[in-house]
Amino acid sequence: MTSSGLLRNTVATAGVGKQIELEVWRHGDKRKLSVTLGAMPEGKDRTAQPSAGATETGPLGTTLAPLDAAARKQLSVPDSVKNGVVVTDVDPGGKADEAGIRSGDVIVEFGGRPVGSPQQLKDQWQKSSGPVAALIYREGRTLYVAVKH
């Protein structure tokens, strides 16, 4: 698959319980994976609601907040996730939306570098060109997405 949108569509049309083959790049190496698709957990609202005035508009068409103690608790982010910024809103059609980033995600790394604040993500975005890998913590799992510049 050549884009996160194509991956999202493939997963949506395959359905729960189906096995699909993926070819991924991890640290410069191409790997083939066989994955079985699962259902999204229901019932719990995983959208982050930061304290008033804590958000900042991000460069990817997002609103970002620091990963503080309240966000960690609400999103069940373990202490092993040392840093990151919380995505509190995603603009439809923006770079983050196209990459599959959603509200409640924690952006841990961007372009292979740790992210500790919304400003740091903005700075890393401005220094980058082409597709940029973002490491995301989402609901107990980490995943990489490619963000087109």
Q: Can you offer a commentary on this structure?
A:
- The model has no long low-confidence stretch (mean pLDDT 82).
- This protein has 149 residues and is α+β, with helices and mostly antiparallel strands.
- 22% of the residues lie in helices and 34% in strands.
- Strands 3, 4, 5, 6, 7, 8 and 9 form a 7-stranded antiparallel β-sheet that branches.
- It is globular.
- It folds into 2 domains: 38 residues, no CATH class; 100 residues, PDZ domain (Pdz3 Domain, Roll), CATH 2.30.42.10.
Strand-helix topology:
Layout: H1 4-14, E1 19-26, E2 29-36, E3 56-57, E4 62-66, H2 69-75, E5 85-90, H3 95-99, E6 106-110, E7 113-114, H4 118-127, E8 132-138, E9 141-147
Antiparallel strand pairs: 1-2, 3-4, 4-5, 5-6, 6-7, 6-8, 8-9
